[in-house]
């Protein structure tokens, strides 16, 4: 009898999980305002076959940080591109091809745990323009509090129904940190909120479809320098009062991010040495 009861509970949980995952993905600006790329110069538009699908953040000379769920396997790196330095995702700025997509190896497609990916660009970025800048990464020493000013930006839907499609122009919205215990309780019947996630919300404000992978940037009191704290990951609906937006915590993955970026720098140095050797041998 006990085994039968557990089996029924497991079936009900799986049905609930399937219903939830169908409703919440892929990604989650509702209640926002139009803005200019110069105010969010790190913002990237991830494009598939020339169409905007996700956001991202410039974090270095060659790298964009985004969400792993933006890239469904099997994916071909040649199908994707990134537009940078533009207020509109369809025009302006620079449209760059990708050299490599590095999804976190622990990404779980069912729970969205470890939902992050690095995009290696085919060109080195020039940060001489006010429209194109990298955003610093938060570390474990950068503690989020309810007083931290948080902004999420992107070209996503402006309503949960999304009849108007993605926004042509960049938008942003302010949100506030939601206590982890409160967030876990809100999603207790949906999906687990892990230590590698953080939650943020504000009445009528949220990210939505098309904002996935986009930046959640925070400003501490008395600071004019924002840092990247989160990556738009998932949530149940858009701007629903009972369900905060869920973000991948950047601080939780600093070791992984630094290792990937550092390895690329080392490989570049090795390739330079190899080139010098080949040139000397001729």
TrEMBL record:
InterPro entries: Peptidase_S1, Peptidase_S1_PA, Peptidase_S1_PA_chymotrypsin, Peptidase_S1A, Trypsin_dom, TRYPSIN_HIS, TRYPSIN_SER. Residues 29-262 form the Peptidase S1 domain. It is an enzyme of class 3 (hydrolase). Gene3D superfamilies: Trypsin-like serine proteases. Keywords: Digestion, Disulfide bond, Hydrolase, Protease, Serine protease, Signal, Zymogen. Residues 1-23 form the signal peptide. It comes from the Eukaryota. GO terms for biological process: digestion; proteolysis. The keyword Hydrolase applies. CDD domains: Tryp_SPc. Its EC number is 3.4.21.4. GO terms for molecular function: serine-type endopeptidase activity. It catalyses: Preferential cleavage: Arg-|-Xaa, Lys-|-Xaa. Belongs to the peptidase S1 family. This is trypsin. It comes from Drosophila busckii (Fruit fly).
């Amino acid at each position: 009898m006990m085994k039968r009861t557990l089996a029924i509970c497991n079936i009900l949980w799986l049905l609930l999980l399937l219903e939830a995952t169908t409703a919440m993905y892929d990604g989650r600006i509702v209640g926002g305002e139009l803005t200019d790329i110069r105010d969010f110069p790190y913002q990237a538009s991830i494009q598939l076959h020339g169409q905007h699908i996700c956001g991202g953040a410039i974090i270095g000379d060659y790298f964009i940080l985004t969400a792993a769920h933006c890239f469904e396997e099997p994916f071909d790196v040649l199908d994707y591109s990134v537009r940078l330095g533009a207020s509109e995702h369809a025009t302006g700025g620079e449209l760059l091809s990708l050299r490599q997509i590095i999804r976190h190896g622990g990404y779980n497609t069912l729970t969205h745990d470890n939902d992050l990916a690095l995009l290696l660009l085919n060109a080195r970025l020039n940060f001489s323009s006010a429209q194109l800048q990298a955003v610093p990464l938060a570390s474990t020493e950068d503690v989020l509090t309810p007083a931290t000013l948080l902004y999420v930006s992107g070209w996503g839907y402006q309503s949960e129904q999304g009849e108007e499609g993605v926004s042509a122009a960049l938008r942003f919205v302010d949100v506030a940190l939601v206590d982890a215990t409160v967030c876990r309780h809100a999603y207790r019947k949906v999906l687990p909120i892990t230590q590698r996630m953080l939650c943020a919300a504000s009445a009528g404000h949220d990210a939505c479809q098309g904002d996935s992978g986009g930046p959640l940037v925070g400003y501490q009191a008395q600071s004019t320098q924002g840092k990247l704290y989160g990556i738009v990951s998932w949530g149940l609906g858009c701007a629903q009062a009972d369900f905060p937006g869920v973000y991948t915590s950047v601080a939780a993955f600093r070791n992984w991010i630094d290792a990937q970026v550092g390895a690329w720098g080392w490989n570049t140095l090795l390739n330079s040495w190899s080139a010098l050797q080949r040139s000397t041998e001729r």
